[in-house]
Amino acid sequence: KKHRNKPLHYDTKPILHIIDNRPIITEHQWQLFKFISSYYLTPLGLVFKAALPATFMLESETYLMLNDADLPRNDLSDEEYMIIEALDMQKMVNVKSLQELFDGKNVFGLVNLLMKKGFVKSLQEVKEKYKPKTETYIQLSDEWQGENINRLFDNLSKNAPKQRLILLQFFSLQRQGRPVPKKQLLEKSGASGTSLKSLVDKGVFFEIKTNIDRINFEAASEEIKGLSPDQQKALEDIRMHFINDKPVLLHGVTSSGKTEVYIHLIKETITQQKQVLYLVPEIALTTQLVQRLTKIFGNDISVYHSKYSQQERREVWMNVLQKQTTAKVILAARSGIFLPFQNLGLIIVDEEHEPSYKQVQPAPRYQARDLAVLLSRIHQSPILLGSATPSIETYYNTQRQRYALTNLHERFGGVQLPDIKIIDLKEALKRKRVKGHFSEVVLEQITASLQQKKQVIVFQNRRGYAPVAQCEDCGHVMECPHCDVSLTLHKHQHKLKCHYCGYHIEAPMICPVCGNPSINYKGVGTEQIQNDLQVFFPEAIIDRLDSDTTRGKNSFANILSKFQNLETDILVGTQMLVKGLDFANVGLVVVMNADQLLFYPDFRADERSFQMLMQVAGRAGRQKEQGKVMIQTYNPDHPVLQMVLEGDYQKMYDLQINQRRELFYPPFSKMINFQLKDRNLQKVMDASEWLYRSFANSFEKVLGPSDALIPRIKDKYIKEILIKLPPSKSLPEQKKQILKILNTFHNIAVFKSVQVIIDVDPY
After folding, report:
1. How much is the average pLDDT of 54-60?
2. Same domain assignment for residues 690 and 751
3. What value does the mean pLDDT take over residues 699-716?
């Protein structure tokens, strides 16, 4: 920032070079970043680190060179002498090259010794991380234009027939004097790059290198579909609410056609030469949406998420900043809120209830849905939140008239709601009607669906093969030595893995404690479900969608594409399956064990269970025919399951909002969670007690300190403290007091090593 007066308290430094020709962030972004830093109690530097693609961060490389002084080398060690000899041979050597000289050994200690002795000095060279992707074009030199070209042809036909062929092909491909892509010219002519290079060396051609985007989509091929009367009414209601400058919640049942309403709004917005931010909770969703949206909007779309490379993300960033035509509609995961919009005309937050909009690790731990609402205020642009099962907070805002509400009650095209059945596993076990982890009635329904050429989705919200490996003789459970969790079996790799720190070992044949071959694997993950189904249905093609099978950049797209193209009969997966994906031929959805959702220790467990089960059910019967949903459980009378059977969101909301009012949970309070971590258990216990007492002296509702859900991760013990803040008091003032207490805490010498992680709105 420029100042008129010279600072009094520090010496200014000269500006050697301006890194960017123009700012890479906007004033609107600056407002947003400052808010994030203040609200989420995160240093501004970490906000920038999260927001900016890494290619904007310059990197430096350390080079070493000999000092001019002629010093005696008699007392140098052999290793030090090797470094000096390397510098004798080359003027400058980077540290990385020296490490290779020493077979990867850390050389910094040796380098520091040589610097202290005065033999070497270091030089930092700053490098740009970003390298643009280029395409080479070929153009004819001016001197060979017109009649001179005939002389060239005569010469080449005698001495260089391949070069003559390239020249002929060039004129065949050239349009209106424009240059020809080099790759295309070589492919069409069948000539080698050497022949073309000879023509360039002779001055016949010259090369033009052009920067191109790494990501491009095909041109539009379809018109926008017409809307049903219910959709048209919703669209008109939304337009009216936008005029009143309120966020709008579109509450539409699954398969009601919310996306078609979004498409009409997007078209209206880009026609006005404005940009659209379309947020989705999962990267998996972008695959289907890109296919759908590019058919209508063509190359006006850009995609922005963490599966793309840093180079690709930088290009999208700059296209948005420069208002390129490829950046009219930005389809993004939560990080899309950081982009430098210049003329934002609409924000859509699809599946707004999804927990994935909350950033968990690392800081800032922001909620993208809430920041999208703030972003709409900063840009004075309308925002639409969409969901079949809205979050309690969002729906509460509609009841308080802070947000407007628009409903879509009908499934598009007259699609019937699925037939949902609750399967009592206790009763099935009593009657011995269970095979493996499947009740017989579920297996019968899968058989019927496959016979009808319908596809099946099986939902199991735990990856791996089995989460517990236990010796049946001595009771020993195989646990991670660095975390307080059991190791999960990944059978196809024959490994036991920790899902928290990555520790893994070969799956043992015998117990490491008693030595008996009595290892039994308990519990069930997606891998085991897939294996069991392959045994029950050997002719079926079965695939799996979880974080183990989707690590590659295009793995999501490949698995979903196969299922969409009817190349897969049964798809087993975790919660990735339930987030708005649309498959026309799914006749049956199976939930393996609803109890894993219902009894999670969180005040949101009932809400999240209802949302997930309703979303799972929404994958069945997406077109014309009624689909079926089978939910297995040991607690068939659980209130949430009854509400899912009835599809009664309002009943769920009323029950939850009353409980939260009584227990002072959001939206009736603001919550801040503090995690304290240290390798020393006693130290983290003492630190958490000190912090708890300090908070309790300033705030009424302080809970803890208690063990985290996983008490130790990566050799660090974890304690948690939770503060509930009343919305009636000034939130900024309460946060100031928190920061004051934390500042005192960090200045206590004995607690210096204790890491404190702050999570504002930890839900």
Report:
1. 71
2. yes
3. 94
For 648, which DSSP code? Answer: -
Measure the N-to-C terminal CA separation of the chain; round to a whole number of Å: 36
Q: Is position 496 within any domain? A: no
The answer to whether residue 132 scores a pLDDT higher than 60 is yes
Q: Is 79 among the domain residues?
A: yes
Phi, psi torsion values for 180, nearest 5 degrees: -110, 135
**In whole angstroms, what is the distance from residue 759 CA to residue 288 CA?**
33
Q: What does residue 730 show for φ and ψ, rounded to 5 degrees?
A: -60, 115
Element (H, E) at 720: strand 716-725
Rounded to an integer, what distance in angstroms lies between the CA atom of residue 243 and that of residue 389?
25
pTM of this structure: 0.79
Q: Do residues 409 and 434 share a domain?
A: no
On whether residue 108 sits in a domain, the answer given is yes
| Matching residue, tokens 């308080």 | 400
CA dihedral 67, 70, 75, 81 (to 10 degrees): 50
pLDDT digit string (tens) for 298-355? Answer: 888 888 877 777 778 888 888 898 888 778 999 999 999 999 999 999 999 999 999 9
Burial of 380: CB neighbours in 10 Å, binned 0-12, 13-18, 19+: exposed
Residues 553 and 621 in one domain: yes
pLDDT digits (tens, 9 = 90+) for 728-744: 889 999 999 999 999 99
Question: What is the mean pLDDT of the segment spanning 85-113?
Answer: 76
Determine the pLDDT at residue 130. 55
Tell me, what DSSP letter sits at residue 567? -
Cα–Cα distance, 359 to 441 (Å, whole number)? 40
**Pair 267, 317 in one domain:** yes
Task: Report the alpha-carbon distance of residue 34 to residue 40 in Å, rounded.
Answer: 10
CATH code of the domain covering residue 675? 3.30.70.600
DSSP 479: B
Find the length of the chain: 763
- pLDDT tens per residue, range 667-681: 999 999 999 999 999
Omega before residue 161 within 30° of 0, cis: no
Backbone angles phi, psi at 670, to 5 degrees: -105, 135
What one-character DSSP code corresponds to residue 256? S
Q: How many CA atoms lie within 13 A of 357 on its CB side?
A: 23
What CATH number does residue 64 fall under?
A: 1.10.10
- Residue 542, beta-bridge partner list: 570
CA angle 182, 186, 187 (to 5 degrees): 115
Interstrand relation of 670-678 and 755-760 (parallel, antiparallel or unpaired): antiparallel
Enumerate helices (H) and strands (E) in the chain, giving the number of each.
25, 30
Residues 367 and 433 in one domain: no
How confident is the model at residue 221, as a pLDDT?
55
Q: How far apart are CA 609 and CA 596, in angstroms?
A: 9
Q: Which of 78, 95, 127 is the last residue of a domain?
A: 127
| Cα–Cα distance for residue pair 563/570, rounded to 1 Å | 8
433 & 558 share domain: yes
**Secondary structure of residue 166 in the 3-state scheme:** helix
Same domain, 401 and 437: no
CATH number for the domain spanning 603: value is 3.40.50.300
Where in the sequence is the domain holding 68, given as residue range(s)? 59-127
Check the CA dihedral 424-426-428-431 and report its sign: negative
SS3 19: coil
Structural domain contains residue 112: yes
Let me know whether 153 and 177 are in one domain: yes
Task: Name the least confident of 127-136, 194-203, 315-324, 714-723.
Answer: 127-136
For Cα atoms 396, 400, 405, give the angle at the middle one, nearest 5 degrees: 70
> Residue 15 phi/psi, 5° resolution?
-85, 120
CA distance 170 to 175: 10
The vertex-707 CA angle with 547 and 605, nearest 5°, equals 55
pLDDT higher than 60, residue 526: yes
Domain boundary at 373, 393, 414, which? 414
Nearest in space to 603 (alpha carbons), one of 689, 661, 644? 661
- Structural domains counted in the chain: 5
